[in-house]
Amino acid sequence: MKDTRRFLQYIGKYRFRYWLILIITLITESALQVLYSYVTKQTINAIEFQNMQMFRTAVIVCVIIVICKCLFPYLRYFHIHLVRRMVYDLKLRLFEKLLDMNMKFYDDTHSAEAMRTLNMDADSLKTAWFSHVYWVSGKIVIVIASVIAMCFYSTILTCIALIISVLTAFVSIRINNSIKKHAKNVQKKSAKLAALFSDIISGFVTLKMNPGASIVLKHFYKENEESAQAERSRVRMEASLEMAAFLLGIIGSFGTIIVGALLVADGKLNFGIVMAVVTLQMSMSSAMQRFGSSLAVFTTSVVRAGHVFDFLELEQEECVGWNTQTQVGTEDLHDKCDVVIEFYKLHFSYNENTQLYYEGLMVKNGEKIMLAGESGCGKSTFLKLLQRFYPVESGSVRLYGRELNEYSLMQLRNMITYVPQESYLFEGTIRENIEYGWNKAGSPDMDMIVRAAKQAYADEFISELPDGYDTRLTAGGMNLSGGQRQRIAIARAMLKDSPVILMDEPSSALDTHSENVFLKVLDSLMKDKTVIMVSHRMTGVERFDRVVRL
After folding, report:
1. Do both 74 and 186 map to the same domain?
2. pLDDT per position as a tens digit, 99-141
């Protein structure tokens, strides 16, 4: 019930239009079913009683049915257009939520699982809101309309139809509860399989070069079999539901025909009324048969939608700041403060087994600090805490004399340039990738982008490319060398021009030539900045004021 309630609540601002179009569509369709039975009755009675007026009435109603049928697709068009807008808005919310999630979410969530939620599960809502809600509610409305119409024809035959409908609904609900459990299991197994696929693709070189591929293959066979088994169980329950609905529908139709024939023979009903009731009964039977399968598909969609809604309800970063109002002024802070960064008795833990403690550190304005220490001592975490990627459990972290939580996230991260070990380049042009560093109003002009690239020693190789700055990069910038990717990332940092620069082993993955170029870039990047750089190899240590060991 919770998933279904959320499924319907997230229609949001489109609620009135969505339900209005859906109700008009359902009323039109159910009215047409009733009119079919009326035409059947009038036509048969016109023949039986030689009444031309009845026949003319039947013809007029037929014309009305044809006109309504011609207009019906337009209603469905407005409906699907509205649903597309709903899914479009939902994906925007998902994307904004993704930007606002804390670092722990990205640490704990596989990228394939996140992509599945953002794409496949979100897209499934389009089908669910457009088709599945229509199918399920449509069958219910048709049954109600048919029962009301049948009451005007014959109470006895209506009772037979109602008994069968109640039995069908009872069986459908019971079996549907099992389908829901199986659907959740299928969703869980599919997410695991998608994550495994992603790992295999990402690590294909390792798999090809090592004998461990057989281990991964066995793991894949196991997960694939479990996923297939879960899917088989779900399909088996759906088939059971459809079979039960079909069987009860056939029993109802035969029962109506037999009882109707007896009533005609007894003179209590005419043949036209019996055929009208049979027409409605067949419509009800068809609706109840499809209700079973529609309800099963709807349940599966609701389960998939539940993953989307669970994601939207996750806790996000505190003081999420991409739209947060400014809290303190930051103008010229780097010129007014002697001490830029202060850590004091800082405590942080990823979990019970990984706990980090920093006694204290003070970085003065314009000072260049190199962080060193053994692997796992928390050097990279140190930089991330300064950017509020993780919440501090105790202790104090100050930037320009203010606690970090006095800044909005936008303010804080605009004052800091972060160069990770492997800077990511997005699919798009080189110019666009450099432009990602721009943190001021408007867009940077081309001269500013070129100047940043020259400062990063990237302009030379960019100019040699056929399309220059408009050269398109693949995801991750894999059509460039590691050194070239790093220089574009540094050009991005140059364009941002923040007073504080944090670097996490930026040269560890570079060859000797690229590292030498990086050292030249480093001088330009660090000029008049406050810098903290993590380094294992102590690359360029002579350029730093001091080395701090953690």
Report:
1. yes
2. 777 777 777 776 666 777 777 677 777 777 777 788 888 888 8
Indicate if the pLDDT at residue 371 is higher than 90.
Answer: no
| pLDDT tens-digit series, residues 438-482 | 888 778 889 999 998 888 888 888 998 888 999 998 877 888 887
Q: Kindly report the length of the chain.
A: 550
Is position 142 within any domain?
A: yes
Provide the CATH number for the domain around residue 417. 3.40.50.300
| Residue 346 forms part of a structural domain | no
Q: How many domains does the chain have?
A: 2
CATH number at residue 216: 1.20.1560.10
Of 161, 156, 150, the closest CA to residue 41 belongs to 150
Q: Is residue 358 part of a domain?
A: no
Q: Please list, in sequence order, all residues whose beta carbon lies within 8 angstroms of the beta carbon of residue 447, skipping any fewer than 6 positions away.
A: none
pTM: 0.65
Q: Is residue 455 part of a domain?
A: yes
Neighbour tally for 241: CB within 10 Å: 26
End-to-end CA distance of the chain: 52
48 and 127 fall within a common domain: yes
pLDDT band at 268 (very low <50, low <70, confident <90, very high): confident
Q: b/e string for 10-47 if b means 16 or more Cβ within 10 A?
A: bbeeeeeebeebbeebbeebbbbbbbbbbbbbbbbbbe
Q: How confident is the model at residue 332 (pLDDT cuts 50, 70, 90)?
A: low
302 and 224 housed in the same domain = yes
CA distance 473 to 545: 37
Return the bridge partners of 36, or none: none
Q: Which residues span the domain enclosing 238? A: 2-312
Q: Which of 531, 460, 443, 453 is nearest to 491 (CA)?
A: 453
Same structural domain for residues 290 and 384? no
Work out whether strand 394-399 and strand 339-351 pair parallel, antiparallel, or are unpaired. Answer: antiparallel
CA dihedral 496, 499, 503, 506 (to 10 degrees): 50
